[in-house]
Automatic annotation (TrEMBL):
Ribonucleoprotein recorded as keyword: no
Name this polypeptide is given: MarR family winged helix-turn-helix transcriptional regulator
Top-level lineage group: Bacteria
The entry's keywords: Cytoplasm, DNA-binding, Transcription, Transcription regulation
Annotated InterPro entries: HTH_MarR-typ (IPR000835), MarR/SlyA-like (IPR039422), Transc_reg_Sar_Rot_HTH (IPR055166), WH-like_DNA-bd_sf (IPR036388), WH_DNA-bd_sf (IPR036390)
HTH marR-type domain ranges (all copies): 12-139
Keyword Transport belongs to the record: no
Subcellular location per the Swiss-Prot or TrEMBL entry: Cytoplasm
Pfam families: Staph_reg_Sar_Rot (PF22381)
Major location category of this protein: cytoplasm
């Protein structure tokens, strides 16, 4: 006879697995769309932040993406070698690096504008449903980080 702890240990009852497997499915969905732009998913996330606010410091971008500099630096080097961003050391403190979009990086935003619609269509959710789900997941993230 199954007990309560057996049910709690079933894979399909795990929130962590639901989030993980959904993240994998979402990344798979994004891949062909991002391949057309020449971006990986983490690079796309960095570009989203820079399209919102250009000229951030590496540390600010890392905070926004929840990434450490060891993860972020190689990603930024690839974006720079692709001609999408420039990294400029601050004159007053060479440890501080500003990231600015190049003309090609700003131009890429127009091509990326179709991606959210593709994701919306694939989700088969309404815009209010996706907004609510996003807010729930963001609230969960904040509670887990607290």
């Amino acid at each position: 006879m199954p007990n309560k702890s057996d049910a709690m240990l079933k894979l399909d009852n795990q929130l962590c697995f639901a989030l993980y497997s959904t993240s994998l499915a979402m990344t798979r969905l994004y891949k062909p769309l991002l391949d057309e732009l020449g971006l990986t998913y983490p690079q796309y996330l960095a570009m989203l932040v820079l399209w919102e606010k250009d000229g951030l410091m590496v540390s600010e971008l890392g905070e926004r993406l929840y990434l450490d500099s060891g993860t972020l630096t190689p990603l930024l080097k690839r974006l720079e070698s692709s001609g999408l961003i420039s990294r400029i050391r601050a004159v007053e403190d060479e440890r501080r690096v500003h990231i600015t979009l190049t003309a090609a990086g700003r131009k890429l935003k127009a091509r990326a504008a179709r991606i959210p619609g593709c994701i919306l269509s694939a989700s088969q959710c309404s815009i209010p449903e996706l907004i609510a789900l996003t807010q729930q997941v963001q609230a969960l993230r904040q509670q887990l980080l607290a």
